Amino acid sequence: ENVNASTRYIVRCEPQLEGIDTSALVNQSATQETATVMGLFPGVTYSCSVAAMNDRGEGDRAAPLLGTTLETAPTGEPQNFDITPGDDGATSRELTFFWGLPPPTQRNGVITSYTISCSPDTETLPLVETTLPGERGLTVGGF
């Protein structure tokens, strides 16, 4: 293709996840008809468009396309973790746990499950551990 040496391209990618600040908008310039945009969050869908620029300014943007980066393990911990005694009557052998999702920029994809571990203060009782789907509350009993 006959491209003027002063033609540049601007690729703009905007995250499509609630809770990510719009300052996370990424602009990448390129002098060729291909670009790799870096600095994106893992497991996030972006709306991306491209425009040509020359010495006179920026042209119209192409219709945006959606692209999703690959997921990685979460880097943030569940928020607002809390424990309350269970309501199992007179035996008091339950604990109820509550938590919220990790921060949006630290989820790195879709949270599919949580693992809860309970370790008694004595070596004679076993460790209780369970994994559950992406729910955010659990009652553990049997202590």
Q: What level of helicity do the residues show?
A: under 10%
Q: What is the helix/strand order? A: EEEEEEEEEE
Can you give the mean pLDDT? 79
Overall geometric form: rod-shaped
Number of helical elements? 0
First-to-last CA distance: 72 Å
Radius of gyration: 24 Å
Number of strands: 10
- Unreliable runs: none
What profile does the largest beta sheet have? Answer: 5 strands, antiparallel
Structural class designation: mainly beta
What percentage of the residues does DSSP assign to strands (E)? 35-45%
Keywords:
five-stranded antiparallel sheet; 143 residues; 10 strands; single chain; mainly beta
Provide a descriptive summary of the structure in words.
This protein is mainly β and 143 residues long. Helices cover 0% and strands 44% of the residues. It has no helices and 10 strands. The strands form 3 sheets. Strands 1, 2, 3, 4 and 5 form a 5-stranded antiparallel sheet that branches. The protein is rod-shaped and about 75 Å long.
